[in-house]
Amino acid sequence: MTDFPDDPHKFAAAKPMPAILAVPPQRSALLRSIRRHPTMWLGGILLGAVVLMAVFAPLIANQDPAALNPAQRVRPPSAEALFGTDMLGRDIFSRCVYGARVSLIVGLGVALLASAVGMVIGLVAGFTRWADGIIMRVMDGMMSIPAILLAIALMTLMRGGSIFNVILAITLAEIPRVARLTRSAVLSVRELAYVEAAVACGTSRLGIIRQHILPNTLAPITVQATYICASAMITEAILSFIGAGLPTSIPSWGNIMAEGRALWQVKPNIVFFPAIFLSLTVLAVNLLGDGLRDAVDPRLAKRV
């Protein structure tokens, strides 16, 4: 029979834990998700390339996107004009490069504003029973109107084609979706046992929201924000395409395509290149959002 010392500290000193049993440092869930989900870093690389293109647009674009040159109207792609020129002789490549700035600013601005405002509204509706019915009926009424139609109506009322007005119009159309998603998450979490225990222990409502509600709503809101960002880019392109968004003096992928639709059959390059830029950017945001969902959601992180 093995004799154990009276003092347990002596046993701990006599029998040190082998190095092989030491717990290795826990790797980041984000890094595990990137390794297991290559679509995440693929979307990140594509989106990073678009961001770099927008930031360094003056260095990448070889011409002024607003410079008119009637003598070079509707030129095919060449060494001087990589994507050709439009009906006013403006360089399509330069306009596409600068158009990335508009799409990224609108997409990111709408995603942040809609997520922040919608989350606050959803938290209030989920925790305040008497206000829940009133707030959700207003949100349902806004959701009954298609987002693009509501954005067009708001742009008409604001009577000004600026980036701020476009962001505001699209944000108001996206807030109800975030509010309803947040409310559903709050309703499912607030009835759990550990939340009821926190209430019984006298934890304040703000403390419950910060410690228990927000961590459980972060994953769905993050995924929804990426979809909102991609949807806002498409909505901005639609508004500019139909003439309800930004003026043609501000390069936007939507108004570049709008200017080339009359010559689509003979000069498809005017519409094709901005459409490719828009499609790749939206795809990158969606791929990145799917990867972030797996990294942020603790239930999915356990499977990774």
Description:
α3 packs across α5. The protein is mostly helical. The protein is elongated. About 7% of the residues have low confidence. The protein has one domain: MetI-like (MetI-like fold). It is built from 13 helices and no strands. It starts with 7 loop residues before the first helix and ends with a helix.
**CATH topology call:** MetI-like fold
Helix content: 55-70%
Residues in β-strands, percent: under 5%
Structural class: mainly alpha
CATH architecture: Orthogonal Bundle
What's the number of extended β-strand segments? 0
Overall mean confidence score, pLDDT? 81
Distance between the termini: 45 Å
List SSEs in N-to-C order: HHHHHHHHHHHHH
Number of domains: 1
Per CATH, the superfamily is: MetI-like
Attribute tags:
304 residues; mainly alpha; MetI-like fold; elongated
Briefly say what this structure is:
This protein has 304 residues and is mostly helical. It is 70% helix and 0% strand.
Question: What's the arrangement of secondary structure elements?
Answer:
Elements: H1 8-14, H2 29-36, H3 38-55, H4 57-60, H5 92-127, H6 129-143, H7 147-158, H8 163-189, H9 193-200, H10 205-241, H11 253-260, H12 269-296, H13 298-301
Helix pairs in contact: 2-3, 2-12, 3-5, 3-12, 5-6, 5-8, 5-10, 5-12, 6-8, 7-8, 8-10, 10-11, 10-12, 11-12
